[in-house]
Amino acid sequence: MNQTQFEKAVADLPFARVEFFESVGSTNDVVAAWAREGSSGLCLAAADEQTQGRGRSGRRWVTPRGRALAFSVLLETGLAFDAALLGRASGLGALAVCEALERLGLSPQIKWPNDVLTGGRKLCGVLPEAHWSGERLQALILGIGINVAAKALPSPDALAFPATSIEEATGTQVAPEGLLRSVLERLLAWRPRMGTPDFLEAWESRLAYKGQRVQLEVGGRTLEAELIGLATDGGLKLLVNGTERAFQAGEVQLRPLVDRPGK
Ligand code: BTN
User: What is the pLDDT of residue 132?
Assistant: First the structure.
């Protein structure tokens, strides 16, 4: 994506600050710096290339030039944000991406907490980051990375989970500015409704492996469990050895038990 395409994508959207970078370390770091400098309201940074892109659990996230969407939204600063909604932030990003992909005719699913899949392969990752200043939430940031072109993907050896791109999933080349706009429209529509049952329902209805047995890694142990659904705080409810348990993002790694496509 270039500057002109970016401007087209964000035209008339109610962001307090927007900026596009041809190349940057990580767009999450850009908006975190804006929050430290005092920017408030919804802000958006996007980049054509990231040189220090990161994913969950300290993993690298590759955004090669001209092949992917990488952007971060500064959702909240200061005290206004309801901390109980923090666990729903990755759902906001994943749901917005799903709805944008549905407009392209895809049937995406959300691998809790932060991956968007099509055909069992990862197409998008969401990285929520909260910055605190003591008890005060300084910034809540939502970073989103989407593989647009087939050539966006790193080599299979570098992947923790099998990946795909929009080009592979749709068989066509999709205009990045249209996709970005679509995701932002859905994100802005859901943002004020993150606390509602409708939001949780829309997220849960797209949850991958619902009602299926999955493999979990918890505290260095591997378990099998049945995936029940979402807890109201955005955690994941599972049936482990006959007992219902809820986990928060970061406590547990989820894997499908069967039908995992090869890398
Ligand atoms: C994951 O799947 O682990 C999350 C990946 C999140 C990648 C996005 S790209 C935009 C933003 N900037 C980053 O450095 N990471 C997020």
Answer: 85
Count, in order, helices (H) and strands (E) of the chain.
Answer: 6, 12
For residue 31 and ligand 1, the question of a CB distance below 6 A is answered with no
Cβ of 56 below 6 Å from ligand 1:
yes
Atom of ligand 1 nearest to the CA of 28: 12
Pocket test for ligand 1, best of 21, 30, 60, 127 (most atoms within 8 A of CB): 127
Give per-residue pLDDT as tens, 120-178: 999 999 999 998 887 778 889 999 999 998 877 777 766 778 899 999 999 999 999 99
Per-residue pLDDT of 224-239, as tens digits, reads 999 999 999 999 999 9
59 lines ligand 1 (CB under 6 A): yes
Phi and psi, residue 118, nearest 5°: -135, 135
Pocket of ligand 1 contains residue 143 by CB under 6 Å:
yes
Q: Please report, for the chain, the start and end positions of each structural domain, with discontinuous segments joined by +.
A: 3-204, 213-256
Backbone angles phi, psi at 186, to 5 degrees: -70, -35
Please give the single-letter amino acid code of residue 146.
Answer: I
The answer regarding whether domain 3-204 maps to CATH 3.30.930.10 reads: yes
Cα Rg of the chain (Å, integer): 18
Pairwise pLDDT comparison (263 vs 27), residue with the higher score? 27
Q: Is 55 in the pocket of ligand 1 (CB under 6 A)?
A: yes
CATH 2.30.30 describes domain 213-256: yes
pLDDT band at 257 (very low <50, low <70, confident <90, very high): confident
Where do we find the tokens 């299979």?
156
C-alpha span between 65 and 147 (Å, rounded): 11
Distance (Å) from CA 241 to ligand 1 centroid: 34
